[in-house]
Amino acid sequence: MKKVIQNSILIICLILSTFATASPELLTKTPMGGQEFGHSVKHIGNGIYVFRWWVYRNIFVVTDDGVIVTDPINPKASQLLQSEIRKVTDKPVKYVVYSHNHHDHISGGNIFKSEGAKFIGHKNILEQLSDHPSPVIPMPDITFEDSYILKLSGRTLELNYFGPNHGDSLAVMRLPEEKILFVVDIVTPRRVAFRGMPDFWPDEWIRTLKEIEKMDVDYVISAHGPQSQPPIDPASVITEQREYLEDLMAAVKEAMDSGMHSPDALRENIKLPKYQKWRSYDQWLPMNIERIWAYYHMGW
Ligand SMILES: [Zn+2]
Question: For residue 268, which of 78, 120, 123, 189 sits 20 to 30 Å off, Cα-Cα?
C-alpha cells in the first residue's frame, strides 16, 4: 500500500512539473484557441521590413553592420522572424527594441540574445518585468528615460516616451530619415479600441496622441492589423485614432450627464455610426463604452 501511495505521489509530481514547465508556452502555442495565424514579410524600402505574425506586426531594419529588430512578439513568431531575416541578410541581429512591457509583444527574444543582440527598453520595463518575469523575455540591457537615439551603420531609430498611456513604458519609435513612425497598441488604423481597453488610460492616451501629432512624421506602421491591412499608412491615422477616442468619451459622458448610469444601458444605447465600418465595431464598441463608463464612474 505504501508503495502505491509513493507511486501516486510520484505521478502527481510528474504531472505538476509538466504543467509547470509547459505553462509559459501555453499562451503562445495556441493564440485564440489555436486559430490559424500565418505570417508575412513586406519590404517597404531602404532596408525596412514589416513582419506580420497573425494580427501582430513589428519592423526590422537591415543595415551593413547588422539588424535592428523591434518586438519579437513570442517564441514561435521570433523563430519565423529570425528565418525571414536570414533570407535577406547574413548580418547578426545587433539590437532588439521593446515597445513596452506587455508579454504578448515582447516574448521570444532569447534566440536573438543567443546571437549577441543587446536589448533596449524604457526603464519602467525593468520594474514591470521584475514583478512579472517570464523565461522567454530577456531583460533590457540598455534603458532610457525620455528618449533614446539608436544608431547603427548610419541608420537611426529614435525612441520616444510620452509618460503613461498604454501601461507606463511605451516607446514610440521613429525613423527620422524616412519620417516613419512604428507605434504599438495606441494607433491601430480603422479599428475601434481593443476590447475593454486593458491597461489603457483613456485621457493619457488622447494626450499622447496629441503630442505624437506634432512629430515630424509622414507614415505610420501599426503593430496590429490583419493580413489585408496595408503594412504602412499615412500619418492621418493618428488623428483618426484620437478623434475616435474623443467621440467615444464625449458620447459616454453625454449619456451619463443626461442620467444614464447603468453600464448595460450605455452599452445598449450608444452608437457611433461614423465608425461603423471600422473593424470590430459591433463586438468591441460595447466593451469600449464600458471602459469609458468606468473612467467617469470611478475616475480610473
Ligand atoms: Zn500592450
Answer: 189
User: What is the Å distance from ligand 1's center to 268 Cα?
Assistant: 27
Q: For residue 57, what are the β-bridge partners?
A: 52
Angle at CA 187, nearest 5°, toward 181 and 192? 160
| Residue 2 Cα to ligand 1 middle (Å) | 51
Q: For 198-254, what is each residue's pLDDT tens digit?
A: 999 999 999 999 999 999 999 999 999 988 899 999 999 999 999 999 999 999 999
Please answer whether residues 178 and 153 qualify as being in contact, where contact means their C-beta atoms are separated by less than 8 angstroms: no
How far apart are the CA of 246 and the centre of ligand 1, in A? Answer: 20
Residues 6+ apart with CB under 8 A from 176: 156, 158, 216
Residues 164-200: tens digit of each pLDDT: 999 999 999 999 999 999 999 999 999 999 999 999 9
Q: Separation of 274 CA from ligand 1 center, angstroms?
A: 26
Beta bridge partners of 60: 49, 69
Cα of 102 vs centre of ligand 1, distance in Å, is 5
What pLDDT is recorded for position 36?
57
Full set of structural domains in the chain with CATH: 37-235 (3.60.15.10)
Ligand 1 centroid–CA 185 distance in Å is 6
